[in-house]
Design brief:
With about 180 residues, the chain is mostly beta strands. The chain contains two helices and ten strands. It binds copper (II) ion (CU).
């Protein structure tokens, strides 16, 4: 595999991030084992998000860096808030990936690491760039149909708004 070294490090970091929650799930905390069933949360149906207003945004340069061997891929784009209210980007989903997270790459003391981001706020008239080395979508467990040259749909989730579908172009591993 002829990948730039920093890309591989990035992907391995993502795998490390995944390992922790998976291990936690393997051994449920004792407290939940004794919780009565009728106290279980999350049983009510979620309100239909599609009935919410559409976010007034412009999204450009949306692309995914494809990686082989099931490695997590990065999703990048530029986003501008065209509305009169602040927007909070709180997540994303995609029919082409089983898991999508908001991440930020942080460089400190020569080491690059990724942190999970709960939300990215965009003031009215302002923009934000998701780009290598900074904010990115961490795209995990890709469908086999995701290949360089294809397109994937990723639905951006803004708080209080309907899912915002964006078409991303899948570029080869060496793209930047
Ligand atoms: Cu990441």
């Amino acid at each position: 595999m002829n990948l730039p070294r920093h890309l591989l490090a990035h992907a391995l970091l993502a795998a490390g991030l995944l390992a922790a929650p998976l291990l936690a799930n393997a051994a449920p905390p004792a407290a939940s084992a004794h919780a009565p069933m009728h106290d279980m949360p999350g049983m009510a149906p979620a309100p239909d998000a599609r009935a919410l207003p559409t976010a007034r945004v412009a999204v450009t340069d949306a692309w995914v860096r494809w990686l082989p061997a099931g490695l997590p891929m990065g999703g990048y784009f530029s986003l501008r808030n065209l509305g009169r209210q602040p927007l909070q980007l709180v997540g994303a989903t995609s029919p082409s990936y089983r898991m999508v997270m908001l991440h930020e790459s942080i460089s400190r003391g020569g080491m690059e690491r990724m942190v999970h981001v709960d939300q990215v706020s965009i003031a009215p008239g302002q923009g934000v760039h998701f780009a290598p080395g900074g904010y990115h979508l961490m795209l995990m467990h890709a469908a086999s149909t995701v290949q360089p040259g294809t397109r994937v749909r990723i639905d951006l989730q803004f708080a209080g708004h309907a899912p915002y579908p964006v078409e991303f172009t899948v570029r080869p591993a060496a793209a930047h």
